[in-house]
Specification:
By secondary structure, the protein is mainly α. It is built from five helices and no strands.
Length: 201
Amino acid sequence: MGRNALTVETSFDSVMPGTFAKFVLLVAAAAVAAASAQAQSRHRIEREPKQVEHPAPPVPVDKRDRVVAAPGAFASRPYWLALAQCGGIYFKLNVLYTDVAVHARVVKPDPKVNTEYTKKLNDAINAATVFFNSANQFLMADRGIERDDAVLLYEAQSRAAGDRAKTIDEALAAARSCAALYAACQQAHAKECSEALTPIS
């Protein structure tokens, strides 16, 4: 009996290191495979091209369109196009202000910043609405199209103008020329630019 116990114990000792070594190798292989898969995934993400901003389609020329006669960034453009582009800039400003307000409300609570930027985002969306309404008025009057068709015509141009502004400062700089455009429009075409535009700070 002592001999059998010794034999069992000896065979157990000789099997155990081999089994343990296989287990360690299996775990190591799994860890290497996981690390390799993660590295390949990261490399694939790095190799993927960055999203390219596609320019808006060319603006269809129409002799009926009234054009901006005032000097500045929008000179000689159709009013509807210039106003729609300004609407896109103010809409982007609203999005940028919203990001700051949400951060101040949820991520790092700051009631003062939240209140300030909530007012700014509301002012920006109101201004965007004024510009879009005026763009609609020009297209409806000049081309005799319905509001829905007007929106479809300028939507890509509007979005492209907003996408060019990456920061609040860039959007505000673009919006300054928009305020001058709207003032000129109110003087030349009071019917199409009849709404009050709230200054954005």
